[in-house]
Amino acid sequence: MSDLSSIVILGTGQGGFQLAMSLRDEGFGGRIVMVGDEAFLPYQRPPLSKAFLSGGTDEEGVLLRPPGYFEEHRIELRTAARAVRIDRAARKLILGTGEELDYDHLALATGARNRRLAVEGADLAGVLQLRDLAEAIAIRGLLSALREVVVIGAGFIGLEFAATARAKGIEVTVIEAAARPMARAISQPMSEFFQIKHQAAGIGFRFGDGVRRILGEAGRAVGVETISGEIIPADLVLVGIGILPNVELAADAGLLVEDGIVADEFLATADPAVSAFGDCARAPNRYATAPIRIESVQNAVDQARCLAQRLTGNPVPYAALPWFWSDQGGLKLQIAGLTTPHDLAVARGDPAGGAFSVYCFRDGRYLGTESVNRVHDYMLARRLLAAGIALSPSQAADTGLDLKSLLT
Amino acid sequence: MAKIIYVEIKGNRKEVEVKTGTTLMHGAVLNGVKGIEAECGGNCMCATCHVYIEPSQLDLLPPKSDDEEAMLGSTASPNKENSRLSCQIKSNDSLNGLVVYMPPRQS
Q: Chain A residues with CB inside 8 Å of B66's CB?
């Protein structure tokens, strides 16, 4: 068991919460304080752009644990609390109120924030983003009165929102700088498939275009002028153009930051009393050739578990398989492994029938699989990757071969 | 509404009223039952809300979907005849008295 008596976790997102829970599960008996600037109990972000907006769940339904959990497990939760400085020499976290929290260990789970759109009109009412619960509540309140929305950015969040809005009968146009949806995250064939499905549902796309300005009347957004000169009316503009890691406090405290707080395979920074994990951290990964910052629930949760083990005296290097998912209008995209960048994408299954998988390779090496409505493929890919089995492109292309046979 | 009896791995029994329409996963999490992780939040994506159903009561439940069957193929604890993903089962009156056992581990 460790000799730590006080652990402060900066961040009350899914990663921060998982660390607190795992520390107690691993038998840590000391003080745990969680600090976060959001006003809510720790909750899940993934449903916010889907079930929460469509009415399938509510504020209680997205909570990770009920209020009583924190008291029962002696987890001191400081919500709506802003940390302003880390004093590493004195091992103190200083809050905006002036309060100083002493720590034996500080875990940085500061997550990320939305990238802002830097164009005229971006500060108009009705220009919204969707990452936290407060934003989701605001959007949910507006949704039933909306007639037409413009989504800026065809990434996961933008498309999940677009599909949810379209299902409510709202006119939806998505503007994307790249030539296809989710271009940074998924393969060309999978991207095309989603584009066709979203278009069939009535979502309009403008690829290779951007936003010149957002048009307003009386302080409210009423439309978007694209760089190509088109004017698209909108009573809500949803900006989903990626996220930026929250690294400023760490950088100010002299910790190394390279698009993410730099951590080792044990999620330790150069300061033995400070760790970093989740969306805010760049760390080595068994499935990547260089340290990488991954934005996902899986990564935050598995890194939290790994860190909890080390902080309770059982250090093991981080080795979890990355996986991702996105629900878009009834389509379930699942990704096993780190599939980008790849130089070869091999499809199996039946895209026209709405169920297929894409196997991604780089320099002939199997990276992972993207699946839509083929859960068996996805789960099998997880097992192949975790076992380090070297699937070849020709095996992936051979539909007569049961890939399961490679496991034995 | 149904009274669900969750049995934690150390043998503690927790009787919980779970509203009709609420999943057995949420019923467990919201009532502090230990042993469910539900990493993906109930989307049938992660197989960390695995439970064992009292074998004599299996017939009370709707059959597994293909997706659930596939996810059960990679649970951390053994996939048995009475294995289910608790996020895929919604409470209703007919489940009153259902006994749900937590597996040794979820991840």
A: 375-376
Q: How many domains does chain A have?
A: 3
The CA distance from A325 to A164, in Å, is 16
Are A375 and B71 in contact (CB < 8 Å)?
yes
Convert the pLDDT of each residue in B47-88 to its tens digit: 899 999 999 999 999 999 988 998 998 788 999 999 999 999
Whether the ipTM is more than 0.90: the answer is no
Supply A87's token pair: 């004093």
Best mutation target among B26, B39, B90 (most A Cβ atoms within 10 Å) is B39
- Same-domain check for residues A352 and A401: yes
Using a CB-CB cut-off of 8 Å, the residues of chain A touching B8 are none
**Amino acid in position A340:** T
Average pLDDT for A46-64: 89
The rounded distance, in Å, linking the Cα atoms of A358 and A361 is 10
A145 & A234 share domain: yes
**How many Cβ atoms sit within 10 Å of the Cβ of residue A173?**
20
Residues A137 and A228 in one domain: yes
Residues 76-105 of chain B with CB under 8 A from chain A are none
Residues A157 and A232 in one domain: yes
Contact B66 A60 (CB under 8 A): no
Kindly determine whether residue A46 and residue B41, on different chains, have CB atoms separated by under 8 Å. Answer: yes
- Point out the domain boundary residue: A241, A258, A292: A241
Residue A321, domain member (yes or no): no
Beta pairing class for A92-95 and A236-239: unpaired
Q: Which domain holds residue A216?
A: 127-241
Choose the mutation target among B67, B72, B85, B90 for the interface with A, i.e. most A CBs under 10 Å: B67
Q: Please write the tens of the pLDDT for every residue from A253-292.
A: 999 999 999 999 999 999 999 999 999 999 999 999 999 9
Together in a domain, A180 and A216: yes
Residue A2, pLDDT score? 62
Domains in chain B, CATH or no CATH each: 2-101 (3.10.20.30)
